[in-house]
Request: fold
Amino acid sequence: MNRKVAKQVRVSLSAVSRLEAWFPLVLRDLPWRNRRTPWRVFVSEVMLQQTQASRVAEKFPAFVRQFPTPKRLAQAPEQDVLALWQGLGYYRRAKNLQAAAKIISTQFGGRVPSTVQELQSLPGIGRYSAGAIASIAFHQAAPIVDGNVARVFSRLADRRESAKDKIAQEWLWSTAEKCVRSAKSAAVLNEAWMELGATVCVPKNPRCMQCPVRACCAGFKANSQEFVPLKHSAAPRRTVVHHALVEIRGSKIGMQTRPSKGLWAGMLSPPVFESSSVLSAATLLREVGDIAHIQQFRGEFEFLTTHRTIRIRVYLVKFRSQAKLRWIDLQKLNEYAVSNAVLRIADAAVQK
Ligand code: SF4
Reply:
């Protein structure tokens, strides 16, 4: 095995110079690349953690315009931060980003720290993000491995295993480290790996004929690129049912603030009753004391999170007068901290 790993590492190292030459030629015009500051790199890396670059490109400029420094973000009301995060999903990242901004302001003199260790001490910054920020913002030889990089490495070396397995992870990180140490520029190489995985060595139908490292790709030679890396046998996804209870008054929708922990924490949403299965109207009326009656079932859609399938069922209801609701203009929903699921709930409620 050791001899095999040594060969695999050499293969990856021969890809380094090819990739460093290739990346400047294909560099996509993305707003965080126009002007690099440690803070802009930090914000972009947090946004990119679970969101596609094209979506981040739409949201990033307004966010850094409103919060151009860690201090400005640290001082902002949380609802303003969540509202500007709207459309990026995984809102816990926005809260972590603001918590990190507070620590940067108080403990690092308002400057983004430059070492992987310091970066990893901040909320929401794992090994990958710390490596990306340290290399791109501070030109340190810090390795990165995410899903894209893991797929490229696994194919380059034709490693027929799941990239999530423990031994595979150790190999991936040590390979990334050896590669970045041999690079002329850690920033260019790390971004090149990400770009290659996002645009060429994609999960399905990789574009091998356009690939700058095809000549040193064992997966291409073995024709294994379609099934390497192997799929991880994941735990079964849990299904939960959200009964969304919507009252519309004129042009306004009744909303509440969600609990401070859990999915979409602290964001606005119509009242939701959660259960493990679909409940009848009679059961909903019994369980949710604030409903006077249920007028109509308006349909259902699914929302997927990392571990759950959420069946969201939309009901038009009439609440009792004691129900504590905030009436929000439907036309202005986008200006509030609401999830994409809430926008779909509102659509389902008002559609003729
Ligand atoms: Fe991926 Fe194909 Fe390039 Fe190999 S040759 S790294 S499989 S795109």
Notes: The beta strands are 238-246, 248-249, 252-257, 268-269, 272-275, 291-304, 308-319, 326-329. The chain has two domains: 3-222, 238-350. The pocket of iron/sulfur cluster is lined by residues 152, 155-156, 200-201, 206-208, 211, 213-214, 217, 219-220, 225 (CB under 6 Å). The CA atoms of residues 283 and 289 lie 11 Å apart.
